[in-house]
């Protein structure tokens, strides 16, 4: 899943309707993805942390931050249902977004980031884009504002997600 350089399109009605109907709700849902997966699969969602370290941004990610940030904490995880990966997620956490009042994002461990983002309701979304990865499926990325600081989350819906729905 390392090849994340995709052609991202701003999410609007026209772009959303280009996606298959089965994925449209997933791509446009503004709430916690972990919670949505749990509801639709009627199962507990677990997090498998693949990496969580400081590293450089991809060019398109840096552009979203106005090219003012070059290294961030990058967290890559699988969201799993019944030990099956159903979503690959990549979170970009600038240093300024994970200190002070936001230091709880540094202590996630195997908890979903959504627990922090949606702790007190809905986190403001500054930008939502979607993409299709040929042969794999659809993804979305959202630029959230957590207590005044940006956090970018890219989520790719794996085909196994549909197999887990009840």
From TrEMBL:
Q: What SUPFAM superfamilies has UniProt attached to this entry?
A: Chorismate lyase-like
Tell me which positions the record assigns to the signal sequence.
none
Q: Which GO terms describe its cellular component?
A: cytosol
- Catalyzed chemical reaction(s): chorismate = 4-hydroxybenzoate + pyruvate
Compartment annotation:
Cytoplasm
Q: In which pathway does it act?
A: Cofactor biosynthesis; ubiquinone biosynthesis
Q: What is one process in the GO biological process aspect for this record?
A: ubiquinone biosynthetic process
Q: Say if the entry is tagged with keyword ATP-binding.
A: no
Protein EC: 4.1.3.40
Which PANTHER family does this one have?
CHORISMATE PYRUVATE-LYASE (PTHR38683:SF1)
Function in brief: Removes the pyruvyl group from chorismate, with concomitant aromatization of the ring, to provide 4-hydroxybenzoate (4HB) for the ubiquinone pathway.
Put simply, this protein is called: Probable chorismate pyruvate-lyase
Which lineage? Bacteria, Pseudomonadati, Pseudomonadota, Betaproteobacteria, Burkholderiales
């Amino acid at each position: 899943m390392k090849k994340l350089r995709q052609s991202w399109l701003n999410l609007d009605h026209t772009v959303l309707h280009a996606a298959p109907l089965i994925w449209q709700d997933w791509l446009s849902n503004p709430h916690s993805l972990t919670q949505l997966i749990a509801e639709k699969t009627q199962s507990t969602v677990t997090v498998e942390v693949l990496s969580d370290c400081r590293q450089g941004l991809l060019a398109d990610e840096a552009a979203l931050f106005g090219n003012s940030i070059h290294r961030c904490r990058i967290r890559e995880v699988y969201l799993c249902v019944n030990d099956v990966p159903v979503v690959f997620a990549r979170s970009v956490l600038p240093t300024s977004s994970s200190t002070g009042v936001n230091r709880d994002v540094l202590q996630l461990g195997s908890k979903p980031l959504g627990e922090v983002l949606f702790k007190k309701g809905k986190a403001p979304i500054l930008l939502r884009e979607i993409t299709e990865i040929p042969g794999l499926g659809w993804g979305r990325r959202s630029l959230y504002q957590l207590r005044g600081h940006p956090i970018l989350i890219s989520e790719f819906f794996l085909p196994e997600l549909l197999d887990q729905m009840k």
